[in-house]
C-alpha cells in the first residue's frame, strides 16, 4: 500500500536534508512494509557532479558487509539440507588452514576468534588473491574460539570458501542461483553493471572529492563486495521481515536472528548482538535485525523491525524496514538517518490494525484459568493457537505450542523447548500440568495431584 503524499514529502525532505548536512555525493533509500517497497528516494548524482546523471532506486551502490548476510543464508540452507552441521569444525569441510578447529556456527556469529582483517595489504583497496593465497598469508585466530564476539572479515571469506567446496561452484554463483534469482534481485552483482555510483572520499575540511578504487577482492569478496540497488535490497529486507518465500523456513530465519553473542563495547550498555549472519539490536524495547556495510567510497544500511513493538518510539508493523546507501567513505549518516526515515513512516502512517475475531476452540477451556506452582499463582490463557502461562518476558512466563495430544512445547525464555504435559485422572478430567518436572495444580500443593516430595498429611495450618 503506497504512502500518502504528505508522508512522501516528509521523507523526501528528510533525505535531502541528510544529503546536505552530511555532505554526501549522493544518497538513496527505501522503506519496506508488508513485504513491499512503499517509498524510495534519492538525492545527488552518480559522479558527484551537479551535471551528472541523477541516482535513483535502480542505481547500484556497493553494499559492503551486508554481503555477509547472503553468505550466511546460503550456509544455513546447506545446514537445512543436511549437508553440514553448525557444530562441524571448519576443517572437516575445508581442511588445511589455521581455522581447522573453529566451528561453522562460530564463524557465522563472529565468535570464532578469527583475526578481523587479512595478514597482507589493506584488502578493501587492493586486488585480492584466491583462497590458497589467503591461507598462505597466515590468517589465523586472535582469541580462543567461542570466547567472545570479534568481528571478522576473514571469517566470512572462510564461509565463502565453504560454500564453494560444498556446492562445488563459485560462492557468488551459489548466491545468485539460490537467492538472487528466486527473489528477482537482478540488479545485485559481484561487480558494478549498468547505472552505478562512483565511490568517493569527501575531504573533511573542503568541498572536494577523491575517487576511491574498485576491484575484485578475490577470496575476501564474500566479506563485502556485492553491489545492489534500493529496489533489489528492499526484497532482501522483505525476506528478513518474514516474507521468506521458498528461500528459508520461518524457523531457520528465527534461529538466525536470535542473539548469539553480545557486542561488548567498554562503558556502553549491551544494545547490540550478533546472530547467524545478521546483526541484532534491542533498543528501548524495540527488536530489530539487519546489517551495516562499508567499503572505500560507500556506506550502506539495512534494518528491519522484528515485531510491532516500537519501544519508546511509534508502533509500526512487524517487518517495517529501511535500506540506505551513500557513496562516501566516512560519515555519521548511518547513525541517525535510517532510523529517522523509519520513525517518520511509523509516525505518519500507523500500521493497519487487524480486527480481533473469535478464533479459538472451546476444547482448551479446561486448561485456562488459575494454576499454582507450589504457593505461587499463575494464569493460563490462550492467544491464537498458543497456550500462554504467566507473562512472557517476565519471570518464567512463556508461550507454548501444541506438540500432540496433551503435549505442548515452550517457545519463550526459560521454558524454550521444554515440554508441558497435561496429566488426567481416570475419568479423563485434567488433574495437573507437568512442566519440565514442575507440577502446576488447581489448588496450592493439591495432595491428589502427585506432587513430587509429597504433601505433609497435616495440610495447611
CATH topology of the largest domain: Beta-lactamase
- As a percent range, the share of strand residues is 15-25%
How many domains? The number is 2
Largest sheet, strands/sense/barrel: 8 strands, antiparallel
Which shape, going by the Cα principal axes? globular
How many extended strands? 20
Classify the secondary structure makeup into a structural class: alpha+beta
Low-confidence stretches: none
Give the proportion of residues in helices. 10-25%
Largest sheet strand order: 2-1-12-11-10-9-8-7
Order of helices and strands: HEEEHHHHHHEEEHHEEEEEEHEEEEEEEE
Question: Which CATH architecture of the largest domain is right?
Answer: 3-Layer(aba) Sandwich
Q: What is the radius of gyration computed over CA atoms, rounded to a whole number of angstroms?
A: 26 Å
What is the level 1 CATH name of the largest domain? Alpha Beta
CATH homologous superfamily assignment of the largest domain = DD-peptidase/beta-lactamase superfamily
Assembly context of the chains: single chain
Number of helices: 10
First and last CA, distance: 64 Å
Domain Beta-lactamase-related: 12-331
GO molecular function, one term: hydrolase activity
Domain DUF7586: 362-442
Protein name: Serine hydrolase
Written overview of the protein:
By secondary structure, the chain is an alpha+beta fold. α2 packs across α6. It is globular. The strands form four sheets. It has an eight-stranded antiparallel sheet with strand order 2-1-12-11-10-9-8-7, with helices on both faces. An eight-stranded antiparallel β-barrel has the order 13-14-15-16-17-18-19-20. The chain folds into two domains: 348 residues, DD-peptidase/beta-lactamase superfamily (Beta-lactamase, 3-Layer(aba) Sandwich), CATH 3.40.710.10; 76 residues. The model has no long low-confidence stretch (mean pLDDT 93). It has ten helices and 20 strands. It starts with a helix and ends in a 20-residue tail after the last strand. The relative contact order is 0.13. Helix content is 23%, strand content 23%. Pfam families: Beta-lactamase, DUF7586. This is Serine hydrolase. One of its GO terms (molecular function) is hydrolase activity. Keywords: Hydrolase.
Amino acid at each position: 500500500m503506497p504512502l500518502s503524499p504528505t508522508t512522501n514529502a516528509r521523507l523526501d525532505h528528510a533525505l535531502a536534508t541528510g544529503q546536505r548536512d552530511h555532505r554526501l555525493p549522493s544518497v538513496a533509500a527505501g522503506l519496506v512494509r508488508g513485504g513491499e517497497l512503499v517509498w524510495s528516494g534519492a538525492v545527488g548524482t552518480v559522479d558527484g557532479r551537479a551535471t551528472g546523471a541523477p541516482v535513483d532506486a535502480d542505481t547500484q551502490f556497493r553494499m559492503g558487509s551486508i554481503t555477509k548476510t547472503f553468505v550466511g543464508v546460503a550456509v544455513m540452507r546447506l545446514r537445512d539440507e543436511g549437508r553440514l552441521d553448525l557444530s562441524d569444525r571448519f576443517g572437516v569441510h575445508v581442511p588445511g588452514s589455521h581455522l581447522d578447529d573453529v566451528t561453522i556456527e562460530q564463524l557465522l556469529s563472529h565468535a570464532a576468534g578469527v583475526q578481523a582483517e587479512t595478514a597482507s595489504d589493506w584488502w578493501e583497496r587492493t586486488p585480492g588473491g584466491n583462497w590458497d593465497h589467503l591461507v598462505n598469508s597466515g590468517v589465523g585466530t586472535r582469541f580462543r574460539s567461542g570466547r567472545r564476539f570479534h568481528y571478522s572479515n576473514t571469517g566470512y571469506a572462510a564461509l565463502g570458501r565453504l560454500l564453494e567446496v560444498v556446492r562445488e561452484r563459485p560462492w557468488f554463483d551459489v548466491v545468485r542461483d539460490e537467492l538472487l534469482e528466486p527473489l528477482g534481485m537482478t540488479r545485485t552483482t559481484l561487480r558494478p553493471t549498468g547505472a552505478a555510483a562512483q565511490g568517493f572520499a569527501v575531504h573533511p575540511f573542503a568541498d572536494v572529492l577523491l575517487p576511491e578504487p574498485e576491484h575484485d577482492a578475490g577470496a575476501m569478496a564474500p566479506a563485502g563486495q556485492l553491489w545492489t540497488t534500493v529496489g533489489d535490497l528492499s526484497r532482501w529486507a522483505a525476506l528478513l521481515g518474514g516474507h521468506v518465500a521458498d528461500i528459508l523456513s520461518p524457523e531457520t530465519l528465527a534461529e538466525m536472528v536470535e542473539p548469539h553473542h553480545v557486542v561488548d563495547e567498554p562503558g556502553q550498555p549491551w544494545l547490540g548482538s550478533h546472530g547467524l549472519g545478521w546483526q541484532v539490536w534491542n533498543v528501548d524495547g524495540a527488536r530489530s535485525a539487519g546489517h551495516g556495510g562499508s567499503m572505500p567510497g560507500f556506506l550502506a544500511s539495512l534494518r528491519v523491525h522484528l515485531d510491532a513493538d516500537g519501544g519508546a518510539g511509534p508502533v509500526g508493523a512487524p517487518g517495517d524496514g529501511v535500506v540506505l546507501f551513500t557513496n562516501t567513505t566516512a560519515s555519521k549518516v548511518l547513525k541517525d538517518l535510517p532510523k529517522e526515515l523509519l520513525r517518520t513512516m511509523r509516525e505518519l502512517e500507523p500500521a493497519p490494525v487487524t480486527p480481533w475475531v473469535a478464533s479459538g476452540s472451546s476444547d482448551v477451556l479446561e486448561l485456562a484459568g488459575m494454576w499454582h506452582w507450589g504457593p505461587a499463582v499463575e494464569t493460563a490463557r490462550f492467544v491464537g493457537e498458543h497456550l500462554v502461562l504467566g507473562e512472557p518476558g517476565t519471570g518464567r512466563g512463556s508461550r507454548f505450542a501444541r506438540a500432540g495430544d496433551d503435549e505442548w512445547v515452550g517457545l519463550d525464555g526459560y521454558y524454550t523447548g521444554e515440554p508441558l504435559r497435561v496429566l488426567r485422572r481416570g475419568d479423563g478430567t485434567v488433574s495437573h500440568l507437568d512442566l519440565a518436572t514442575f507440577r502446576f495444580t488447581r489448588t496450592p500443593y493439591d495432595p491428589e495431584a502427585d506432587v513430587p516430595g509429597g504433601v505433609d498429611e497435616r495440610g495447611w495450618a
